[in-house]
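re: ur question from earlier - yeah i can do the single chain one, its not a big deal. heres the input i used so u can compare w yours
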Amino acid sequence: MTYADIHFHGLSQIDDGAASEEDMHTMLAQAYQDGVRTLCYTPHYHPGYFTDRQQAAVERFGEVQAYCVQHYPDLEVFLGNELRYAENCVAWLREGVCRTYHHTRYVLVDFFEEEDRRTIVQGLEQLLNAGYLPVLAHVERYRSLWRSDRELRRLADDGVLLQMDSQSLTGGFGYRVCLQSRHLLSRGLIDLVSSDAHDPWQRPPGMSDAYRYITQKMGEAYASALCRDHARRILAGKAVRKERYI
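and the output i got, formated as C-alpha cells:
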C-alpha cells in the first residue's frame, strides 16, 4: 500500500517545521520509507503570525524537486499552503499570495486550537461562499467542535472536507484527542488522513500506523480512501466521493 500525504511541514526554515536542510531530507526519507508516494508541502500562511516566506518556500521547494529527481524519482511532490484563517483570507487566495492545493479550489485551512465553534463555522462558510472548498486541518484537535457531530455533518454536506492527523489517531496528541479521532472515524466523518509532520522526532511523517488501524476497524476501502485516494482527487481538483464505507 502507498499513501498520499498532503499536510506536511517539511521545507527547511520556512515555518515551524523542518529546521535545517538535514531535517528536510530526513523527513522526506521517513515519508518515503513509510510508503508515501504523493506528498504536498503545506507551509503555514498568515503574514501576521508567520512572516511572508512565500518566495523562499518556492525556492526551497525547487531544491526538494531536484533532490527527489535524484533520490526518489517515483515520488510526486506538490506545493500548497496551510492557511491560518483571518477575515481577509479570501483576498489572499484570490491574489494568489496564499496557495490552494495545486491550483484547485481546495484549500487547507486551520484555526487556533482554542477557537470558538462559531468562528470556525463562519470562517468555513465564508470560504465556501467565495467558491473555495475548505479542507479543515486536524478537525479532531478543536475542543469547541467536540460533541458537534451534527454541525460537522452539515458542514461536510455543504462541501467542507475534514482532515485528521495520523498522530492524533495513534495517541500523539493525548488521550482525549485520540478518543475524538476514533469517534469521528466511527461516525464516518473523516475524509482525509495526513501526517501534519513538523520534524523528524516529535512530529515525524507517518501514515502506515493510521492506515493499519483504520483497516482493522473499518476496512481496507475506507482506509485507502482516507490515506491515499481522496488526497489524490483533491490535488487533481476532482470531487471527493463520500461513499458510506461503514
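The CA atoms of residues 140 and 180 lie 6 Å apart. not sure if urs matches, ping me
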